[in-house]
Write a structure and sequence with these properties.
Elements lengths: L9 H8 L19 H9 L8 H8 L1 H10 L7 E4 L13 E5 L13 E2 L2 H15 L3 E5 L5 E7 L6 E2 L3 E3 L14 H6 L10 E2 L6 H17 L5 E8 L5 E7 L13 H8 L4 H15 L7
Antiparallel strand pairs: 1-4, 2-3, 2-4, 5-6, 5-7, 5-9, 7-8, 9-10
């Protein structure tokens, strides 16, 4: 095994190393297509790699392009608008809304102030997001129901949704809005004092679980994800699930105290962290006609 840092020297080091296959979990450093950099160089040099291709990674990091694709294929996602300044707001989306950066992940730019109940709040948050992150803001209709995340593992024929993770917003401070943003991930939840916000398996009826699994796999296939992904889902007041975001390069922190959702779902399925990594590697190798030794 060779470790390669995805830095400015990566293309040269990759060509010199000539690995049989690359296990990719590099998120990149800059730009709206930063998660596509490593797989793009792998394709340039003709080297097999795990996970989704550059196109899927680029589309999914752009929340609007993701939602446009889902909408075209009839997969439910909340109504949205993308703006570069408050003057572009059309004010047709039902309040409250969530305002967040268009091209970020790991809840970057999503905080308690992202929940906007008035148009004055929306204008202020759009201004902050655009100035702070130097990118457009996406305004998304807020759904008042429960929130889940679905970890998908494998490809067509053996693809599966691992046990669904549910977010319990009742564990947040009493005056907090029910969103899983920066504070919930990085301030209120710390390894030395974990926030008991997750239930896995989720506490939902078989009917709701089936519907969540159904739209998660539909989004996975429609956006041409490969090997693995994590899909965030939220319900409206009638428990109808909608896709919030698709993460074809899911975060995977092995320490259970870190509250990383994908490993949490895998543990509920009886899979160790190492088993997940090997399953992803074997799924990718199978696409290239390679065999991973036992």
């Amino acid at each position: 095994m060779i470790r390669l840092e995805a830095d400015a020297d990566f293309p040269t080091k990759l060509r010199e190393a000539e690995p049989d296959i690359v296990f990719n979990f590099a998120e990149g450093f800059g730009g709206p297509s930063r998660e596509s950099h490593v797989p793009a160089f792998c394709e340039f040099w003709g080297i097999p790699y795990t996970g989704s291709d550059p196109l899927t990674l680029g589309v999914c990091l752009d929340k609007a392009r993701t939602k446009e694709t889902l909408t075209h294929h009839g997969i439910p996602t909340p109504e949205f608008q993308v703006v570069d300044c408050p003057e572009q707001l059309n004010r047709t989306i039902e309040l409250p809304v969530i305002v967040k950066p268009l091209h970020e992940g790991s809840s970057k730019g999503i905080s308690q102030r992202s929940f906007c109940a008035t148009w004055a709040d929306v204008e202020a948050e759009v201004t902050r997001v655009v100035e702070r992150y130097n990118e457009p803001a996406i305004i998304e209709r807020f759904l008042s129901g429960r929130e889940f995340t679905a970890a998908v593992l494998g490809n067509d024929g053996d693809g599966q949704v691992l046990p669904i993770v549910e977010l319990d917003f009742e564990t947040l401070p009493t005056d907090a809005h029910p969103i899983y943003g920066f504070e919930a991930k990085w301030v209120w939840d710390r390894p030395e004092k974990p926030l008991d916000i997750f239930h896995c398996p989720a506490r939902c009826s078989p009917q709701l679980r089936h519907r969540i699994e159904e739209i998660a796999m539909a989004a996975y296939r429609t956006l041409r994800c490969r090997d693995w992904a994590r899909i965030d889902i939220r319900c409206d007041g009638n428990e109808a699930p909608y896709i919030l975001e698709v993460n074809p390069l899911p975060g995977v922190i092995p320490d259970p105290a870190a509250n990383s959702c994908y490993p949490k779902a895998a543990r509920a399925a009886g899979l160790s962290f190492d088993e997940v990594i090997l399953t992803v590697l074997r799924a990718a190798a199978a696409r290239y006609g390679l065999r991973v030794p036992d």
